[in-house]
Amino acid sequence: MQKNLDKPAANPLSKDFQRERKLSFSEKLYIPEILKGLKYSFKQMFAPTFTMNYPEEKWDPPASFRGRPVLVEDNGKERCVACGLCARACPPLAISMQANEDSDDPKERYPDFFEINMLRCIYCGYCEEVCPEEAIVMSKDYDIVFESREDAIYDKERLMVAKEDLEDRLEFLRNYKNQQFGQFWDFQEENNIHSVRDRDTDWNTGLSLVDMLEQQKKNDATEASKNWSV
Ligand code: SF4
Ligand code: SF4
Fold this sequence. Notes:
Layout: H1 15-18, H2 25-29, H3 31-44, E1 69-74, E2 77-78, H4 85-89, E3 95-101, E4 109-117, H5 126-130, E5 136-138, E6 153-154, H6 156-159, E7 160-162, H7 167-176, H8 196-199, H9 209-220, H10 223-226
Parallel strand pairs: 1-7
Antiparallel strand pairs: 1-2, 1-5, 3-4, 4-6
């Protein structure tokens, strides 16, 4: 039999739904109930508060908090060597960059442009996880507003934050990064200078292979390296 869709059949109510609580005499008057409500509200005005008056009061998140990803600025420059790993690991493809080279800089590679589309970012922290240079980390910044879609695309200048302002997070990473795999994490600044050209003594333009080996010895002697087991 074809159903008449214009006139849906009335839902038969169960007996439970048909029962209705009878109001007492004072409830029928409403005034006592209103006074009861006012009394409760008044009591709550003097109870301890568990909320904040945001945005007048700002919350300071713990170091484990994953806020807006930022680029670490070290001595006025980004640590990033534009390897592209973060862009590769980013699930919503929020990161885009273009690598460039500067032969006068011992770091040699740097991102010509580096952008994160904050409308796409899901604050997963994968970029921070894969970065070999500790160049991108999750900051405490959660107060992010845009006026347009273009405004949500953060360029290198907006992404860079001095490492001194990220100490909490860097310390957190030092203590917890990759602990589950029984490894250690200790950012070694010298790793940021890893150019093959600079290791070549013939070019004689930067750190020699001897310098690098000396540095490696120093790195191996760090506290974190002592705890490392293969
Ligand atoms: S936090 Fe996640 S989504 Fe955001 S840029 Fe990093 S990898 Fe991409
Ligand atoms: S993974 Fe790190 S070093 Fe590589 S491009 Fe991303 S931020 Fe730069």
